[in-house]
Amino acid sequence: MSLRVRFPFHFLIGAICLLSSGAAAGELQIKKTAFGMGAEVGSGLVEYHKTCVLFRVLFISGDFFKDLQERKTSNGIEFRKKKSKATYASFPDQLIVDLEAIPWKCGTTEMTPPDYASGLMEAPSFEVAWKRGDETRRAELLATEQHHHPLGFGWSYLLTVPSASVPLTDSLVIDVSLRHGICQTHLTANLDPREHRMIPNTCD
User: Fold this and answer.
1) Going by CATH, does the domain composed of 9-202 fall within 3.10.560.10?
2) What is the reported pLDDT for 75?
């Protein structure tokens, strides 16, 4: 089934910025959140009946991701901070994943009520895994939190993921299950801005 979504204008602009800004330079886009400075590392779009949900994934770990850049070298990909010769190979021991979700009624630009789609967005479940090439390694979540932002018309789900010794070139796969599995989606997040393509998905 094809997916036809008419984005509210401010959602569309934000999505375009996520996909394009900094991609050529290999520089992460940093966003200030209520939970700390986060690096935007992935996105997805889900349609469930007449409800559309825009997901954005952010990695949070103090100032670790600030000014971090990806570079291709003759020895492969390396990560450095701006104006620094030090290189970084692995994620911090623990990673906070801020999964933002903004629901609205598909096909309209009208203002979305603060409680819109609460029945769909409340109490989701998650599974996460680290991926390297074709190899996937499941990780056990250390903690989860749910936050509703009535004034921002969205939700934040904080996932604490073990990441000790995980190479920065690995991807994090996030399986999201809404409303006890009625609607499921699959998100992939990584530090390569050139791979941040928004992937539409339609729940049955």
Assistant:
1) no
2) 80
